[in-house]
Design brief:
alpha+beta, Pnp Oxidase, Chain A, 9-stranded antiparallel sheet, 9 strands, about 35% strand
Length: about 220
């Protein structure tokens, strides 16, 4: 079904679930994030751990994709992927990225920016071994971001590596974790009349500065 442009222009929603103010928010953005993530999980939202990852390549063209957060502490936010993928190659050339969580049902967005580095081999090994067997085989079977002739390539690769490694596939050398060390956070809470709440945290002199942005 084709959606008329006029119908798109008429789509709108009034955001009235909650508010975000300086007095009720945490001074540390990591604590604020953990609170909101915990509330998204408690609300049983679909895939509350899904986040959009934005990177920029050497051609200066930005690209985005959805990945899953697998760790979060004072060192940064962690996800795992194929290092030879498009995002992996872009991060190798430009180690800065942005993340975004959009919890639609809670009318909330979190944006995070910072420098990215690979996790240690030990961290990547530990997480890889925690994955289901088919996911571990899949990491070997998929030449992520490369052109393939059809799905049969993936099926054949999975069969080949499954026969080779049986129940104990090792972590591929091209697969592992990334960690984004945040130097900027923004928390967005939808509000009525498009007068949304936006609190930004940025580093200054080794401390977090919290400030309100106009919506």
């Amino acid at each position: 079904m084709t959606v008329p442009p006029s119908s798109l222009a008429e789509l709108r929603k009034s955001y009235e679930r909650a508010e975000l103010n300086e007095d009720a928010s945490h001074a540390d953005p990591l604590q604020q994030f953990n609170q909101w993530l915990g509330e998204a999980i408690a609300a049983q939202l679909p895939e509350p751990n899904a986040m959009t990852l934005a990177t920029v390549g050497s051609d200066l063209r930005p690209s985005t994709r959805v990945v899953l957060i697998k760790g979060c502490d004072e060192r940064g936010i962690v996800w795992f992927t194929n290092y030879d993928s498009r995002k992996g190659r872009q991060l190798a050339g430009n180690p800065y990225a942005a993340l975004q969580f959009h919890w639609v049902e809670l009318e909330r967005v979190v944006r995070i920016e910072g420098r990215v580095e690979k996790t240690s081999d030990a961290e990547s090994d530990a997480y890889f071994q925690s994955r289901p067997l088919d996911s571990r085989i899949g990491a070997w079977a998929s030449p992520q971001s490369e052109v393939i002739s059809g799905r049969g390539v993936l099926v054949a690769n999975a069969a080949r590596y499954g026969a080779q490694y049986l129940l104990n596939p090792p972590r591929p050398p091209h697969w592992g974790g990334f960690r984004l060390a945040a130097d900027r956070w923004e928390f967005w809470q939808g509000r009525k009349s498009r007068l949304h709440d936006r609190l930004r945290y940025r580093t200054e002199g080794g401390a977090w500065v919290r400030e309100r942005l106009a919506p």
